[in-house]
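Here is the promised in-class demo. Please do not try to memorize the tokens; focus on the logic of going from shape to residues.
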């Protein structure tokens, strides 16, 4: 078997592990799983770390299982949460599961004959599980003392919200998942984020006590940015994998805007580029950071995996126009094609034009007229890629691209297309 553990280790993806994991992965084909929470209609960039881990597993000849928590999703994992999640309906969970399936399929080969990937919904066994049987066959193997010692439980007990019995029992359900996968697929490895360590070891203990079997756990680091903030969160909110929630262009820009300090680490975490290629890009960041070669490679590779090559081409084309020189002479249709993913709005024709500050407020690039004036005076506002510094500036039809639209930009990252509505015929 190819050395999966070594691959994960040099990429910085091994935060903690149980004894014997390296040896087990190097000796024989192993079946391992990672769980995915369907409490949202889409996975997000924070899930990409474990998605690529499953893909590495399959590439190294092992058999990955992606468990979509149609059952546990009805409860909600308290790990990393300060308050209890809002419970979803069965219909909401089923809808979310369908969306997640397609996103996982871009990373895993479910048709492989040598190392097949599986997609399993734990609702298959959890929704038919009786309360009395569960407490008798599973609950008796866990002490309340051990469950209270879990970090996720302790944090909630210390909070004003506390923790309900529903979420308190979550780790038992996840442990039961591991047992079911062990019985059905000889699954002997569970992976996840480091916040899942307690849940993973609970499953290992259950397998040992009920079946006398040996299972393993491996967890990956929780990611923060160079500034110490949670990875995947922006001013606009969560960065989703669903193109309807986060456009491919915004997705590409998220990766392109990665800090130099994080670029090499993210290349190791989120791409399948080999070590020499990544080290070359890291060297380019050290010697010529202005070229942003690492960020461009990162944005290109991750966008291709999640959305496909076509969206990479469109995003790169849009980026070259967005951050290029004056675009006022380009055909409006070409500009609209490039900025297809950019937020837009429409204004009615005005003989005297439009006050720029008002357009900035209407497009939500500025919070107020005073904020708009400050941004303009500070040189942070561009119209059709030309900086505007006059706080009283007005835009006229003659300033618009083909007399049809304006491309507004705030700083280097935020943009908005303003379209001029066509006059309706009289009568």
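The designed amino acids, position by position:
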């Amino acid at each position: 078997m190819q050395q999966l553990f070594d691959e994960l280790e040099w990429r910085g993806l091994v935060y903690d592990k149980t004894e014997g994991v390296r040896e087990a992965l190097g000796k024989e084909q192993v079946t391992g799983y990672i769980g995915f929470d369907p409490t949202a209609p889409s996975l997000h960039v924070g899930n990409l770390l474990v998605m690529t881990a499953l893909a590495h597993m399959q590439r190294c000849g092992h058999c990955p299982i992606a468990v979509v928590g149609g059952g546990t999703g009805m409860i909600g994992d308290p790990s990393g949460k300060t308050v209890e999640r809002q419970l979803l309906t069965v219909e909401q969970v089923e809808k979310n599961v369908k969306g997640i399936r397609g996103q996982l399929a871009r990373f895993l080969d479910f048709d492989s004959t040598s190392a097949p990937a599986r997609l399993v919904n734990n609702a298959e066994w959890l929704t038919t599980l009786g309360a009395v049987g569960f407490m008798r066959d599973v609950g008796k193997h866990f002490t309340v003392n051990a469950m209270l010692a879990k970090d996720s439980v302790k944090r909630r007990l210390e909070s004003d919200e506390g923790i309900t019995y529903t979420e308190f029992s979550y780790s038992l359900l996840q442990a039961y998942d591991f047992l079911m996968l062990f019985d059905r697929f000889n699954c002997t490895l569970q992976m996840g984020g480091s916040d899942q360590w307690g849940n993973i070891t609970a499953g290992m203990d259950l397998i040992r006590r009920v079946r006398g079997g040996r299972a393993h756990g491996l967890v990956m680091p929780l990611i923060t940015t160079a500034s110490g903030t949670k990875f995947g969160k922006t001013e606009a909110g969560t960065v989703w994998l669903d193109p309807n929630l986060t456009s491919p262009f915004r997705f590409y820009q998220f990766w392109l805007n990665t800090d130099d300090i994080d670029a090499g680490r993210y290349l190791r975490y989120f791409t399948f580029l080999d070590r020499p290629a990544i080290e070359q890009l890291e060297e380019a960041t050290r010697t010529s950071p202005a070229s942003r070669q690492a960020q461009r490679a990162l944005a290109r590779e991750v966008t291709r995996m999640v959305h496909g090559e076509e969206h990479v081409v469109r995003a790169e084309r849009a980026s070259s126009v967005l951050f290029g020189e004056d675009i006022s002479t380009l055909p409006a249709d070409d500009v609209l094609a490039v900025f297809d993913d950019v937020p837009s709005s429409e204004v009615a024709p005005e003989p005297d034009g439009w006050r720029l500050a008002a357009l900035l407020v209407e497009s939500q690039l500025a919070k107020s007229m005073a904020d708009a004036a400050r941004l303009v005076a500070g040189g942070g506002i561009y119209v059709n890629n030309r900086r505007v510094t006059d706080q009283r500036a007005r835009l006229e039809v003659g300033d618009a691209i083909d007399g049809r639209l304006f491309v507004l930009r705030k700083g280097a990252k935020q943009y908005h297309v303003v379209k001029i509505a066509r006059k309706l015929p009289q009568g």
